[in-house]
Design brief:
The protein is mostly beta strands and 367 residues long. The chain folds into two domains: 253 residues, Galactose-binding domain-like (Jelly Rolls); 106 residues, no CATH class. Helix content is 7%, strand content 42%. The protein is built from three helices and 22 strands. It has a seven-stranded antiparallel β-sheet with strand order 2-3-6-11-8-9-12. Strands 1-4-5-13-7-10 form a six-stranded antiparallel β-sheet, with no helix packed on it. A three-stranded antiparallel β-sheet has the order 14-22-17, with no helix packed on it. The two termini are 36 Å apart. The model has no long low-confidence stretch (mean pLDDT 95).
Length: 367
C-alpha cells in the first residue's frame, strides 16, 4: 500500500470512529509468543496448542500430518509467522475430516460488536498469508453462543499477501458477557464432504455443517505443500486498518491469561514455601504474572523434577501444580507428595526444582 493510500484509508477510519483505544481483538496475531515450543511434528493426529500461543489446531479423522513451527520470515514489519509444512498427504478424504487453525475469544472481549442488537457492528479480519502455490482456503467466524456462522474464502500465492475480509453485522443472538468461549475464528485448510457439500452464506446464519467449508482446497493434497500465516487482526467496522503492533512484553502478558509455563533455569530453583500437613505432603504457594482466565489445569514435567530443600533428591512421588488457587486465579499452590515420610507435619518447607533444569510447571486455562 502506498503512503497516500494508507493516509486515505486512515482518514476513512477516523471518519467512521474506528480508531479509539486498542483495535486488534486478536492476541498474538504476529506470532511472536511461543511458550510451549517453536516446532512440533506429527500435527494433525490430535487437537491442541503446539507452538504459537493462542493458535489451536482443530482436527478430525485425517491421516494428513504436518510440522508446525514459529518461523522467522521478515516482511511488512513482521519478524515471525506460523508455518505448516505437510509431511504426510491425505488424498482419500473421508466425509468427517477437518483440519483448522483456530483462535478462540471470550464473550466479554466482544461486547463492542453489539451482536444480536439492532445496532450490531460489522467486523473485519485482516491477515498476511502465503503458501507453496495457489490454494483456496476459508476463514470462518463462528458464534458459539448462538450456533451461528459465516465463512469467507481467500486465495494464496507464493508471495505474502494481506487479505481483508469483512463480516456483516449480525442482529441475531447476543454474545454472553463472561469469560467463556463466545466466538472463534478458524482457518479451514482441509475438509471432507460433511463440511463442503453446501454453499457459503453471504451473512451470518444458523450453522449448517455443509456450508462451513464449501469451496476450499486441501492443504494435505501433497507433501510439497506449506502454509504461512501472520499479522492477524480483528477489528470493529468494515475497514481494515494497519496492523496494531504491540510490544513483546505486552503480548506475552496477554497470552499468560490463558497459558503460563514456568521452567527452571538452574538446579534447585526455588518455587515457593508452604507447610507440611502430614509426613508425606507439603504445599508451596507461588504467583503467576497475571490473573488467569479461569482455574487452570496444572501439570509438572515429572514428579522427580520437583524436590524439597534439605531432603534427598528423587523422593517426590506425586505433584499437583494447581492444588489450591486464589479466587482471582493470580496465585496457586503446588502440592508435593514424598516417599519415606520424610516431612515433619506442621513445619515450613521450601519446594524447588530437583538437581536438574528439567522442571516445568504448566498452567492451562485456554478456552
Amino acid at each position: 500500500m502506498t503512503k497516500a493510500a494508507e493516509l486515505a484509508k486512515m482518514g476513512e477510519v477516523l471518519t467512521n470512529s474506528q480508531i479509539g483505544g486498542r483495535r486488534n481483538i486478536i492476541i498474538n496475531g504476529a506470532m511472536n509468543v511461543a511458550q510451549r515450543a517453536t516446532s512440533a511434528t506429527g500435527v494433525g493426529a490430535s487437537a491442541g496448542y503446539f507452538t504459537c500461543d493462542r493458535w489451536k489446531i482443530e482436527t478430525n479423522a485425517t491421516a494428513g500430518r504436518a510440522t508446525m513451527s514459529q518461523t522467522a520470515d521478515v516482511h511488512d514489519g513482521f519478524a515471525n509467522c506460523l508455518k505448516l509444512d505437510c509431511t504426510t498427504a491425505d488424498t482419500s478424504i473421508a466425509a468427517s475430516e477437518l483440519f483448522q487453525i483456530s483462535h478462540k475469544l471470550e464473550g466479554q472481549d466482544l461486547q463492542q460488536l453489539k451482536k444480536g442488537t439492532s445496532s450490531a457492528e460489522s467486523f473485519t479480519v485482516s491477515f498476511y498469508v502465503k503458501a507453496s502455490g495457489s490454494f483456496t482456503f476459508g476463514l470462518e467466524a463462528f458464534d458459539n453462543d448462538n450456533d451461528r456462522q459465516m465463512t469467507k474464502l481467500f486465495t494464496t500465492t507464493t508471495d505474502w499477501v494481506r487479505h481483508e475480509l469483512t463480516f456483516p453485522a449480525d442482529t441475531t443472538g447476543t454474545l454472553d458477557d463472561d469469560n467463556a468461549l463466545s466466538m472463534f475464528l478458524s482457518f479451514w485448510l482441509h475438509s471432507g464432504s460433511t463440511f463442503t457439500s453446501g454453499t457459503l452464506g453471504t451473512s451470518f446464519a444458523s450453522s449448517t455443517s455443509g456450508n462451513r467449508a464449501a469451496g476450499i482446497d486441501s492443504f494435505f493434497s501433497s507433501t510439497d505443500n506449506n502454509f504461512f500465516l501472520t499479522g492477524v487482526q480483528m477489528e470493529v467496522g468494515s475497514q481494515a486498518t494497519p496492523f496494531e503492533h504491540r510490544s513483546f512484553g505486552e503480548e506475552r502478558q496477554l497470552c499468560y491469561r490463558y497459558y503460563y509455563q514456568m521452567k527452571a533455569a538452574t538446579s534447585f530453583m526455588k518455587i515457593g514455601h508452604g507447610r507440611a500437613y502430614d509426613t508425606s505432603n507439603t504445599t508451596a504457594t507461588y504467583p503467576v504474572p497475571v490473573p488467569m482466565r479461569a482455574n487452570p489445569t496444572g501439570s509438572v514435567s515429572a514428579n522427580s523434577d520437583v524436590g524439597v530443600a534439605g531432603l534427598s533428591s528423587g523422593g517426590t512421588t506425586g505433584t499437583n501444580a494447581a492444588a489450591e488457587t486464589f479466587d482471582d486465579f493470580s496465585r496457586f499452590a503446588i502440592n508435593v507428595t514424598r516417599s519415606g515420610a520424610d516431612l515433619t507435619s506442621g513445619n515450613i518447607f521450601q519446594v524447588e526444582s530437583d538437581n536438574n533444569t528439567d522442571m516445568t510447571i504448566k498452567l492451562d486455562a485456554e478456552l
